[in-house]
Structure formats: structure tokens, C-alpha cells
Amino acid sequence: TQLPYRDGSFHHIFVILVLHHLNRHNKRRVLNEIVRVLRLGGALHMIDFGSPANLPAYPISFVTRWFEEIDDHINGLLPAFIRDAGFRSVVETARYATVSGTFCSYPACKLDGVR
Question: CA-CA 20 to 30 A from 104: which of 17, 41, 74, 80?
Fold first, then answer.
């Protein structure tokens, strides 16, 4: 939630299967910090849990909720959190059904004028 880097230090940031470990408040803090350290025009590349991809994924999502902070992810709120942090062009580009649940890919851009 407090990266030791100057503002605008990076062109790309990759966040893979991290946010589901954090509560809602800290997810938002991390995303705001990522915006801070990205350069204008920089890109976020994120993969994390998302809403269930198919019928068998629904029971998996109910079990996973007991062990992780993924309710927001399963309810499809992660793209909104990314947008709220100041990213644009947030779209789900891929879904991966796994035995652990559905993983979704969310690339996003930091455009001019964003923090």
C-alpha cells in the first residue's frame, strides 16, 4: 500500500493473483498506489479471481469465499475498483476456468490527466 518508488516510475505493472488476499479497503489503496507509480500512458496488467465462468464454477466460488477476500471479485466489482482508482479502458479480456475458480484478465491504461 506504500510502494518505495517515485511517482510515474513505471511503464507497466503486473499484478497476478494478489488482490483477492486483501480486504476491500486495501484493494483500493493498492490500486491507488499503482496509479501513483505508473507513468502517464502506463499500463496495468492484472489477473485475479472474477465472477464464475460456468455452472461448475459456482460451487467452487462458494468454497473459496471461506478462505479468501474474493466476494468483491466473484460479484464482478474488480473492474469498477480499477476504474475508481483512475484507470481507463478497463475491460475483461480473458477468463480461465480452473479448479480454484475463475481467473480473469483486466488490462487497463493510465491516461493523461489521471493523478
Answer: 41
The end-to-end CA distance of the chain, in Å, is: 16
Q: Which carries the bigger pLDDT value, residue 66 or residue 6?
A: 6
Report the residue count for the chain.
115
Burial 2-35 (b: 16+ CB within 10 A, else e): eeeeeeeebeebebeeebbebeeeebbebbebbb
CA atoms of 14 and 107, how far apart (whole Å): 9
Neighbours of 82 (CB within 10 A): 24
Neighbours of 44 (CB within 10 A): 22
CA nearest to 91, candidates 82, 99, 100: 82
Q: What is the pLDDT of residues 60-90, one digit of tens each?
A: 777 776 677 888 888 889 999 999 999 987 8
Q: What is residue 67's DSSP assignment?
A: T
CA distance 2 to 32: 10
